[in-house]
Structure formats: structure tokens, C-alpha cells
Automatic annotation (TrEMBL):
Keyword DNA-binding assigned: yes
Residue ranges flagged as DNA-binding region: 55-74
Alphabetical keyword list: DNA-binding
Stretches assigned to the HTH tetR-type domain: 32-92
GO molecular-function terms, A-Z: DNA-binding transcription factor activity; transcription cis-regulatory region binding
Organism whose genome encodes this protein: Archangium gephyra
Highest taxon above the source species: Bacteria
Pfam families membership: TetR_C_15 (PF17918), TetR_N (PF00440)
Name listed for the protein in its UniProt record: TetR family transcriptional regulator
PANTHER family noted in UniProt: HTH-TYPE TRANSCRIPTIONAL REGULATOR PKSA, HTH-TYPE TRANSCRIPTIONAL REGULATOR RUTR
Amino acid sequence: MKDASGLEFASPAPRLVRKIRQRKRPVQKRAEVTVDAIVEGTLQVLRRDGYVALTTTRVAEKAGVSVGTLYQYFPDKRSLVTALMVRYFGRMVGAVQGAAEEVIGAPLEHAIRHTLRALLQVKRENLDLALALRGPMSELDGAGLLRDSTRQLLEVVAAMLRASAPRLKHVEQRAGVLLSALEGSVSHAVFESPHLLSEPWYLEELVALATGYLSARSSR
């Protein structure tokens, strides 16, 4: 997808959605509501009982649908939790992409601050989801989904840097280093110190980390 400036941005949906092993996809509003209820029920059961104890029967009961209805869309509990992971990573990519598009071509520090603010906000809003998925990530295709979302985020960050720091060389490599550093810090905050996600000073520290690194590399 391209923005008004012609810069290319990744679309988060197609690559991630392919990872869900659904028997059929909802095509009507009523079916979408049913699938949303099932996915939300999966989150509630996962948070309450954990992945090992999660069953399709418990999810159907929590979602207020029959087991037969659940099986129309999801063949097993792995596909249910994979749908949650796709939802989580899709929200992360969508928030960062949307924020980056809003400030394309803006001064570098402003673009970085705006995009990081959106990232911290979506992390706060999906904290329960992140915590619930921490265990199943290692048992399911979490690594594959993480690679897909990271690849898309890398494309977004690289496009933003090209527009806001046109003299920066080796953009893809430096976008990758920057993304790894920021994601490492933010992930630690999510799982160990979630209150940091709401702290203005933490946002400014991330901005300083990003701008300091890029400034030091701008002429190399």
C-alpha cells in the first residue's frame, strides 16, 4: 500500500491472516460477530485457565455458541489461539503503520515520537492479550507470526526513515537495528514493568535512543 507521497507501506492483514487454520471465513456481519465472540472467548478462557486447560468446549461456552458452531470456523484449539496471535500482531502492525503514515516526511524526531506513542498505546490496550499469549507463543507458530509482523514493521520503519532522514545510508540495516532495540525495550516493559507504557519519560527515553542512534549514523 502506498501513501500520498508514493512511499510503500506493508498491509498487515494478508500475510498474517493466512496463518489461521479456519474451516471457513465469515462473509456476513452475523458470522463476523460470531467469530469475534469465539476469539474473545478464547482470550478469556486462556487468561483464566491457561493453554493446557483450554478446550473448544470451554471456549464455546464462554462465547455463548454451540461447539458445532465453533467447529464451523475453527478445527481445534491451536487454530483458536493462532487467531488470537494474528489479532495481536495485526493490531501492532496496524497501529505503527497508521501512525507512520500520519507523519510521513515530518522531521525525524517528531515522526519517531508520534509513531512510538502509537506503539506504546496499542501495547497498553492489548496488555491482557500479550500476557495471555506469552506461554502459547512457544508451543504454536508464534515465531513464524513474529517474523512476519517484524518484517512488515521493518518495511514501515524503513519507509518512514527514507522520508524523514533522506541522507541516511543503509536504511534497511539501520531500521532493523533500531527496531530490534526498541522492541526489546518495549517487550521487557510489557512483561516486567507494564506501568512504563504510560510514563511520558519512558516515551522520551525511547525517542532519545532512536534519534541518538540515527544521528550518530547519519553521515556513515
